Amino acid sequence: MSQLQAVKLIAFDLDGTLVDSAPDLALAINAMLLDLGREQFPEQTIRHWVGNGAEVLIKRALSGSSAISSDIEESLYLQAKDLFVQHYSEKLCVASKLYDGVAESLEQLSKLNVPMTIVTNKPGVFTQPLLEALNLAQYFDVVLSGDSLPRKKPDPLPLQHLVERCEVEMADLLMVGDSKNDIQAAKAAGCRSLGLTYGYNYGEDIALSGPDFVADSLVSLLELIKGSVTA
Description:
The protein starts with 8 loop residues before the first strand and ends in a 6-residue tail after the last helix. It is of the alpha/beta class. It has helices spanning about 20-35, 45, 55-65, 75-90, 100-110, 125-135, 155-165, 180-190, 220-225; strands at about 10, 20, 95-100, 115-120, 140-145, 175, 190-195, 215. This is Phosphoglycolate phosphatase.
């Protein structure tokens, strides 16, 4: 892996990148479906539906497919959303856990004084509580959730907003994520990206999205940027 130059800011995705949250998301989705008297699904199936935010996840569950049905009534979706929020809020961090290497890597990056931020499609009502539950909140100067701005990844708006807020150039930002949404957002914004081979990418190889770097863990990210950080 070649060395990365001039990193002044790192944006991390959350679900599938730092945290394996699929077990709790699956529990909440299946509890929602049970309340609605609808078919439930294995966790492995629901994992392939994660990554585009809660609305898409709920609609995929109601459709029983990654392809969202066009005949989902708004009243059904709103009922399902209320149930999902209730169940997920009650059990946000029961089975969720950090991926291997995350805690150590964030601690080392912090010691290198690398400013770190979160850019996730997860709704804000869940983002901060999850970061706090897993003792991650301390590492991030800025947290942008899926509903923080009018548009979310793969739209470039969150990354554009981030560099303006943090007063850095787009070329100095590195987006780190597990999904094509992260890579597409980075390409559209004009910053570099690192794609992680684990996580939630709809069963696709992250390399197919064309990130600048590919890694199997955040430990590789740490090695990549050592000596490349600029003040």
